[in-house]
Amino acid sequence: xxxxxxxxxxxxxxxxxxxxxxxxxxxxxxxxxxxxxxxxxxxxxxxxxxxxxxxxxxxxxxxxxxxxxxxxxxxxxxxxxxxxxxxxxxxxxxxxxxxxxxxxxxxxxxxxxxxxxxxxxxxxxxxx
Amino acid sequence: xxxxxxxxxxxxxxxxxxxxxxxxxxxxxxxxxxxxxxxxxxxxxxxxxxxxxxxxxxxxxxxxxxxxxxxxxxxxxxxxxxxxxxxxxxxxxxxxxxxxxxxxxxxxxxxxxxxxxxxxxxxxxxxxxxxxxxxxxxxxxxxxxxxxxxxxxxxxxxxxxxxx
Lengths: 128, 164
What we know:
The complex is a heterodimer of chains A (128) and B (164).
Chain A: H1 2-12, E1 14-16, H2 21-88, H3 92-107, H4 120-127
Chain B: H1 5-30, H2 33-50, H3 58-79, E1 91-93, H4 100-111, H5 115-126, H6 131-138, H7 142-160
């Protein structure tokens, strides 16, 4: 029992620490802002998020449009080349087929020659 | 709507009168200064939103709100035990007589008590409430409250050893 009294006497000398002064300012600042102020901050954050999303989607669409227009331009160019070559070969289905085959061959990327067909010197270039 | 100037003054007066005591209460339950600040802030903010509507005894309302806030924090911590906090009950001298070594040792020993025991020690030793008043506040029986106080003092005595 006396031991408990000793602890109680020790506790009498102390108390929990006081709050920091910043807590008062924080409490009063938050209350002064009011729910409208807090709602406004939330709304601004939400609007910023939506704006970022819209900009992202718009940019994606612009890039897609650019890619699509390039593909369409290339197809038009190819059609014109086929027509020109068909006419140069005398016209008709056979000429068109030959023109298309020739253009397909011209569009196929060239691959490096098989290494077995090369001279030792040429092969050494590819090995480097 | 933000508080008007007079309402703001009223809240400032209320904080000056009750805020420090409520912070100390929260600090002793949580043994975590940052957590205690958050709880007191949230309680005053909730009061500001309600503008005191439906509150009969503001002192009792705030004390209970702080208590509930603290135990909510403790429940969340229990679910996420990795979110470990500083569990030293920070103390300051009540008078001129301060032995920093004793103060730190007592704070650390208090920090190792279960929150419920720390709360009873706070209400009895630091706030001077009777066991009956503590029982009324906490909703526990008077025997439970007295038992927690005894266990707490025994543990403090054992932890502090020859320091007393």
